[in-house]
Write a structure and sequence with these properties.
alpha+beta, 3-stranded antiparallel sheet, 5-stranded antiparallel sheet, Alpha-Beta Plaits, 11 strands, single chain, 6 helices
Protein backbone atom coordinates (compact mmCIF):
# COMPACT_ATOMS: atom_id res chain seq x y z
CA UNK A 1 0.00 0.00 0.00
CA UNK A 2 1.29 3.46 -0.90
CA UNK A 3 0.41 6.76 0.76
CA UNK A 4 0.66 10.39 -0.25
CA UNK A 5 2.45 12.45 2.39
CA UNK A 6 1.14 15.95 3.11
CA UNK A 7 2.88 18.61 5.18
CA UNK A 8 1.20 21.67 6.72
CA UNK A 9 3.36 24.78 6.32
CA UNK A 10 1.75 26.54 9.29
CA UNK A 11 1.35 23.84 11.93
CA UNK A 12 4.16 21.49 10.84
CA UNK A 13 1.71 18.58 10.95
CA UNK A 14 2.06 15.61 8.58
CA UNK A 15 -0.69 13.32 7.36
CA UNK A 16 -0.84 10.27 5.09
CA UNK A 17 -3.56 9.70 2.49
CA UNK A 18 -4.00 6.35 0.67
CA UNK A 19 -2.78 6.44 -2.94
CA UNK A 20 -2.91 4.03 -5.86
CA UNK A 21 -5.94 1.85 -6.55
CA UNK A 22 -7.19 1.97 -2.98
CA UNK A 23 -6.98 5.76 -2.96
CA UNK A 24 -8.97 5.87 -6.21
CA UNK A 25 -11.57 3.57 -4.66
CA UNK A 26 -11.95 5.83 -1.63
CA UNK A 27 -12.31 8.85 -3.93
CA UNK A 28 -15.10 7.05 -5.82
CA UNK A 29 -16.89 6.48 -2.52
CA UNK A 30 -16.52 10.14 -1.63
CA UNK A 31 -17.83 11.30 -5.00
CA UNK A 32 -20.81 8.93 -4.81
CA UNK A 33 -21.75 10.10 -1.32
CA UNK A 34 -21.42 13.77 -2.31
CA UNK A 35 -23.47 13.19 -5.44
CA UNK A 36 -26.28 11.49 -3.53
CA UNK A 37 -26.28 14.19 -0.86
CA UNK A 38 -26.66 17.05 -3.35
CA UNK A 39 -28.65 15.39 -6.15
CA UNK A 40 -31.28 13.13 -4.55
CA UNK A 41 -34.08 14.85 -2.55
CA UNK A 42 -34.53 11.55 -0.72
CA UNK A 43 -32.28 8.55 -1.10
CA UNK A 44 -32.26 4.85 -0.40
CA UNK A 45 -29.57 2.21 -0.75
CA UNK A 46 -29.17 -1.54 -0.87
CA UNK A 47 -26.26 -3.94 -0.74
CA UNK A 48 -26.25 -6.47 -3.59
CA UNK A 49 -24.05 -9.59 -3.43
CA UNK A 50 -23.55 -11.63 -6.61
CA UNK A 51 -21.87 -15.02 -6.15
CA UNK A 52 -20.93 -17.60 -8.76
CA UNK A 53 -21.94 -21.23 -8.19
CA UNK A 54 -19.09 -22.77 -10.23
CA UNK A 55 -15.74 -22.01 -8.60
CA UNK A 56 -13.92 -22.81 -11.85
CA UNK A 57 -15.53 -19.96 -13.79
CA UNK A 58 -13.65 -16.75 -14.50
CA UNK A 59 -15.63 -13.84 -13.12
CA UNK A 60 -15.41 -10.95 -15.61
CA UNK A 61 -16.97 -7.51 -15.50
CA UNK A 62 -19.13 -8.35 -18.51
CA UNK A 63 -21.31 -10.43 -16.16
CA UNK A 64 -21.73 -7.53 -13.74
CA UNK A 65 -22.45 -5.17 -16.64
CA UNK A 66 -25.27 -7.46 -17.78
CA UNK A 67 -26.93 -7.16 -14.37
CA UNK A 68 -26.38 -3.40 -14.21
CA UNK A 69 -28.01 -2.94 -17.63
CA UNK A 70 -31.07 -4.82 -16.39
CA UNK A 71 -31.19 -2.71 -13.22
CA UNK A 72 -30.81 0.46 -15.30
CA UNK A 73 -33.75 -0.48 -17.55
CA UNK A 74 -35.87 -1.26 -14.49
CA UNK A 75 -34.97 2.03 -12.77
CA UNK A 76 -36.00 3.95 -15.89
CA UNK A 77 -39.37 2.20 -15.92
CA UNK A 78 -40.08 3.10 -12.30
CA UNK A 79 -38.69 6.64 -12.77
CA UNK A 80 -35.89 6.39 -10.22
CA UNK A 81 -32.37 7.84 -10.41
CA UNK A 82 -29.57 5.56 -9.26
CA UNK A 83 -25.81 5.17 -8.88
CA UNK A 84 -23.61 2.26 -7.83
CA UNK A 85 -20.14 1.19 -6.69
CA UNK A 86 -19.00 -2.42 -7.12
CA UNK A 87 -15.92 -4.43 -6.15
CA UNK A 88 -14.72 -7.99 -6.59
CA UNK A 89 -13.97 -9.72 -3.32
CA UNK A 90 -10.67 -11.53 -2.88
CA UNK A 91 -8.73 -12.63 0.14
CA UNK A 92 -5.50 -10.86 1.12
CA UNK A 93 -3.46 -12.92 -1.36
CA UNK A 94 -5.47 -11.80 -4.37
CA UNK A 95 -7.14 -15.17 -4.94
CA UNK A 96 -10.59 -16.57 -4.32
CA UNK A 97 -12.28 -16.24 -0.95
CA UNK A 98 -12.00 -19.11 1.53
CA UNK A 99 -15.36 -20.38 0.22
CA UNK A 100 -13.75 -20.78 -3.20
CA UNK A 101 -16.19 -18.37 -4.85
CA UNK A 102 -15.28 -15.01 -6.28
CA UNK A 103 -18.13 -12.58 -5.88
CA UNK A 104 -19.19 -8.97 -6.30
CA UNK A 105 -20.31 -6.54 -3.65
CA UNK A 106 -22.43 -3.74 -5.11
CA UNK A 107 -23.81 -0.78 -3.21
CA UNK A 108 -26.69 0.85 -5.06
CA UNK A 109 -28.10 4.29 -4.26
CA UNK A 110 -31.54 5.16 -5.65
CA UNK A 111 -34.08 7.94 -5.27
CA UNK A 112 -37.41 6.11 -5.07
CA UNK A 113 -38.58 3.67 -2.41
CA UNK A 114 -38.95 -0.01 -3.46
CA UNK A 115 -37.34 0.77 -6.82
CA UNK A 116 -34.95 -2.21 -6.87
CA UNK A 117 -35.93 -5.17 -9.07
CA UNK A 118 -36.75 -8.45 -7.33
CA UNK A 119 -34.11 -10.99 -6.34
CA UNK A 120 -35.57 -13.41 -8.88
CA UNK A 121 -35.01 -10.94 -11.73
CA UNK A 122 -31.45 -10.24 -10.62
CA UNK A 123 -30.66 -13.98 -10.35
CA UNK A 124 -32.03 -14.55 -13.84
CA UNK A 125 -29.94 -11.71 -15.26
CA UNK A 126 -26.82 -12.81 -13.32
CA UNK A 127 -27.07 -16.40 -14.55
CA UNK A 128 -23.95 -17.60 -12.71
CA UNK A 129 -25.23 -18.52 -9.28
CA UNK A 130 -26.65 -16.74 -6.29
CA UNK A 131 -27.83 -13.28 -5.35
CA UNK A 132 -28.61 -11.52 -2.07
CA UNK A 133 -30.12 -8.06 -1.62
CA UNK A 134 -29.89 -6.34 1.75
CA UNK A 135 -31.56 -2.98 2.33
CA UNK A 136 -30.01 -1.30 5.38
CA UNK A 137 -32.14 1.15 7.35
CA UNK A 138 -30.03 4.19 6.52
CA UNK A 139 -32.30 6.08 4.13
CA UNK A 140 -31.77 9.53 5.62
CA UNK A 141 -28.43 8.99 7.39
CA UNK A 142 -25.69 9.54 4.84
CA UNK A 143 -22.97 9.06 7.47
CA UNK A 144 -24.28 5.56 8.12
CA UNK A 145 -24.35 4.87 4.40
CA UNK A 146 -20.66 5.78 4.25
CA UNK A 147 -19.89 3.45 7.16
CA UNK A 148 -21.89 0.72 5.46
CA UNK A 149 -19.83 1.19 2.32
CA UNK A 150 -16.59 0.86 4.24
CA UNK A 151 -17.82 -2.21 6.08
CA UNK A 152 -19.07 -4.21 3.12
CA UNK A 153 -17.01 -2.93 0.21
CA UNK A 154 -13.73 -2.30 1.98
CA UNK A 155 -13.60 -5.24 4.39
CA UNK A 156 -10.64 -7.50 3.67
CA UNK A 157 -10.05 -5.87 0.30
CA UNK A 158 -6.38 -5.43 -0.56
CA UNK A 159 -6.29 -3.46 -3.80
CA UNK A 160 -2.54 -3.56 -4.20
CA UNK A 161 -2.61 -7.37 -4.08
CA UNK A 162 -4.80 -7.65 -7.15
CA UNK A 163 -2.20 -8.67 -9.68
CA UNK A 164 -4.61 -10.37 -12.07
CA UNK A 165 -7.26 -7.66 -12.25
CA UNK A 166 -6.07 -4.17 -13.14
CA UNK A 167 -9.65 -2.91 -12.89
CA UNK A 168 -10.45 -4.03 -9.36
CA UNK A 169 -13.62 -1.99 -8.91
CA UNK A 170 -16.15 -0.13 -11.00
CA UNK A 171 -18.59 2.70 -10.34
CA UNK A 172 -21.18 4.90 -12.01
CA UNK A 173 -19.86 7.96 -13.82
CA UNK A 174 -20.08 11.00 -11.54
CA UNK A 175 -18.87 14.53 -12.45
CA UNK A 176 -15.47 15.41 -11.00
CA UNK A 177 -16.76 18.38 -9.00
CA UNK A 178 -18.13 15.93 -6.41
CA UNK A 179 -14.59 15.06 -5.35
CA UNK A 180 -14.52 18.38 -3.47
CA UNK A 181 -15.08 18.50 0.27
CA UNK A 182 -18.61 19.23 1.46
CA UNK A 183 -17.64 22.81 2.39
CA UNK A 184 -16.06 23.58 -0.98
CA UNK A 185 -18.86 21.88 -2.90
CA UNK A 186 -21.43 23.99 -1.06
CA UNK A 187 -19.45 27.14 -1.84
CA UNK A 188 -19.30 26.18 -5.52
CA UNK A 189 -23.01 25.35 -5.57
CA UNK A 190 -23.91 28.72 -4.05
CA UNK A 191 -21.61 30.56 -6.46
CA UNK A 192 -22.45 29.05 -9.85
CA UNK A 193 -24.89 26.17 -9.26
CA UNK A 194 -24.12 22.46 -9.48
CA UNK A 195 -25.67 22.01 -12.93
CA UNK A 196 -23.09 24.42 -14.33
CA UNK A 197 -20.23 23.16 -12.13
CA UNK A 198 -20.73 19.61 -13.41
CA UNK A 199 -19.66 20.77 -16.88
CA UNK A 200 -16.37 22.26 -15.71
CA UNK A 201 -13.00 20.63 -15.11
CA UNK A 202 -12.45 20.27 -11.39
CA UNK A 203 -9.48 19.32 -9.20
CA UNK A 204 -9.17 19.31 -5.41
CA UNK A 205 -8.06 22.97 -5.36
CA UNK A 206 -9.67 24.70 -8.36
CA UNK A 207 -12.47 24.69 -10.92
CA UNK A 208 -11.61 25.65 -14.51
CA UNK A 209 -13.91 26.63 -17.36
CA UNK A 210 -12.71 26.58 -21.00
CA UNK A 211 -14.57 29.13 -23.14
CA UNK A 212 -15.34 28.94 -26.87
CA UNK A 213 -11.92 30.45 -27.68
CA UNK A 214 -10.14 27.68 -25.81
CA UNK A 215 -9.14 30.05 -23.01
CA UNK A 216 -9.05 28.56 -19.52
CA UNK A 217 -10.77 30.65 -16.86
CA UNK A 218 -10.47 29.81 -13.15
CA UNK A 219 -13.97 29.84 -11.67
CA UNK A 220 -12.95 28.95 -8.11
CA UNK A 221 -9.66 28.37 -6.33
CA UNK A 222 -8.82 27.35 -2.78
CA UNK A 223 -5.42 28.04 -1.25
CA UNK A 224 -4.24 25.37 1.16
CA UNK A 225 -1.48 25.24 3.76
CA UNK A 226 -0.92 21.58 2.89
CA UNK A 227 1.85 20.58 0.47
CA UNK A 228 2.29 17.10 -1.02
CA UNK A 229 5.78 15.72 -0.34
CA UNK A 230 5.39 12.59 -2.47
CA UNK A 231 4.72 8.91 -1.87
CA UNK A 232 5.68 6.55 0.96
CA UNK A 233 5.18 2.82 1.27
CA UNK A 234 4.05 3.00 4.91
CA UNK A 235 2.40 5.79 6.97
CA UNK A 236 5.33 6.35 9.33
Amino acid sequence: MKYKVFYNNKSGECCHVPAGRYGTFLLSIRKAVQFVRYSFPKYYCCHLTLTQADVNNTLGYEHLNRVMKMVNAHMKRVDSEWKYIAVKEYNSEGVRQETGNLHYHVLIFYSKAYAMPSVQRVVKSWGLGFCKITAPKVRCKLGKITSYLGKYLGKGYEFEALNKDKKSFTASQIPSCYKLSAVRLKELRDKIGLNIAEKYKCTFTKVVWTNYRGEKIIVARWISDWVCLGLEAEPF
